[in-house]
Each structure stands twice: as C-alpha cells, then as structure tokens.
From TrEMBL:
SUPFAM superfamilies per UniProt: His-Me finger endonucleases (SSF54060)
Signal peptide segment: 1-18
UniProt name for this protein: DNA/RNA non-specific endonuclease/pyrophosphatase/phosphodiesterase domain-containing protein
Top-level taxonomy: Eukaryota, Metazoa, Chordata, Craniata, Vertebrata
Keyword Signal listed: yes
The entry's keywords: Signal
Organism: Sinocyclocheilus grahami
Domain of life: Eukaryota
Molecular function (Gene Ontology), one example: metal ion binding
DNA/RNA non-specific endonuclease/pyrophosphatase/phosphodiesterase domain location: 97-197
PANTHER family, per the entry: ENDONUCLEASE DOMAIN-CONTAINING 1 PROTEIN ENDOD1, ENDONUCLEASE DOMAIN-CONTAINING 1 PROTEIN-RELATED
Length: 216
C-alpha cells in the first residue's frame, strides 16, 4: 500500500505520467469499486488525474490546485509487493507513523480478501488544515484511508477505515459509514460517499474488520 503523499511522486519515476481527465469513470474507472469514485467536489480548482507507470494505470487522484494537495487517491490492492515500492518518499515524521498501520492493513487484506478472490479497492486522502509550507502547499489536518473487498457479485464483504490527526496520535479505526460521516463534517459538505451505494451490503451482513491494536 502507498500513502497518499507519495502517490503523486509517481510522475517523477521513469515511465510515470499523469493525465487530467474529464471524469474518472471513463479515464481510470477500473481503480474504483464498481467503477464509481468517491464524492467529488464542484469547483474549477479540482482536477481528476489518472496516473500511469510503465503504461499501466496505477492511481486515480482527485487534486486540489488551490491547496496544492490531493483530496484523495484510489488504487487497487493486489498484494504485499505493492507496499514497499516507494518507501523513500516518506518525508514527514507524522506520515512515517502510518507505515506500521499500512503494513498491518496490507497483511490483513492479503490474508482475508485476496485468498477469497475478492477485488480490493483502497482510497486514501487528507483534509486541508490551516497552515502552509512555503506559503503554497496546505498542511493537512487529518489523514485517512479506507478499503473495501468486493465479492464476485460486486458487493463489499469486508471493509474498514482509519482517520487520524496530523500529529503523533493513534489513528482511529472506523466503519465506512462512520468515516463518511466524519469526512462530511471535516470537508464541510452535506454528505461524503467513499464507495458507491451499489457495493454496500446491509450492515448486519457486511464484515467490519476491527483492528484490536493500531498503536504505532
């Protein structure tokens, strides 16, 4: 797994490129559960970007040109081999803390979802704070990540989410629904949808994987 602040670095790698598209669904919809992206905000400052590496589409990023940070990036998890590809891009102490959590999530997905032939979709993002770096780049106030394991009927059988402030605190483990509620408040919008409603099972049937220990 790759944390959001490293995702945009793909364009710096050999063979990496970015393409601004009119909508994610036609440009890189395969990176989203059931081909539908999370909530996108209106406004001319936002860009929908499909990122490629060696001619393969790896990430979809919803980018805020005013704050000069991504809102979120999405990708399809296919195994632990993806976890260490860009470790050198961890540059912030607060971001390095998430590596332990990411490793735990990757191990759980490899154990609980991939053996069942589930398709695993991950979205990870930030909430803009009030501070700036060099009077240009907005410092995030929160980091968050969420995953959904889709079965052969394109229904989310296993899911979980995490959110934490941009400081040395333990990220909070959340259900998808609770994380959506938190993000709607933090982004100051009426609602925020992480995965398309067609993927969702009734709450009693969906498995929420709760991490008993996410201390970093």
């Amino acid at each position: 797994m790759l944390l959001l602040l490293r995702v945009l670095m793909l364009s710096l790698l050999s063979g990496g490129s970015v393409k601004v598209v009119q909508n994610f669904e036609s440009g890189c919809g395969q990176l989203f559960a059931n081909g539908k992206s999370p909530t996108r905000f209106p406004g001319p400052q936002y860009r929908q970007i499909c990122q490629t590496l060696n001619n393969d589409v790896y990430y979809a990023t919803f980018y805020d040109t005013d704050n000069k940070i991504p809102v979120y990036s999405a990708y399809k998890f296919e195994g632990l081999k993806d976890c260490t590809r860009l470790d050198k891009w961890y540059i912030e102490p607060q971001v390095s803390q998430w590596r332990v959590l990411e490793k735990k999530i990757a191990e759980e997905l490899s154990d609980q979802c991939l053996p069942k032939k589930y398709s695993v979709y991950i979205v990870t993002g930030v909430v803009p704070g009030t501070g700036n770096i060099n009077n240009r780049v907005k410092v995030p106030s929160h980091f968050w990540t969420v995953y959904c394991c889709l079965d052969n009927n394109n229904r989310c059988q296993i899911s979980s989410g995490f959110i934490g402030e941009n400081k040395k605190d333990t990220p909070k483990n959340k259900t998808v629904k609770d994380l959506e509620t938190d993000l709607a408040t933090l982004y100051n919008v009426d609602s925020f949808e992480l995965f398309d409603n067609s993927t969702k099972l009734p709450p009693k049937k969906q498995k929420f994987f709760k991490f008993l220990d996410v201390r970093l």
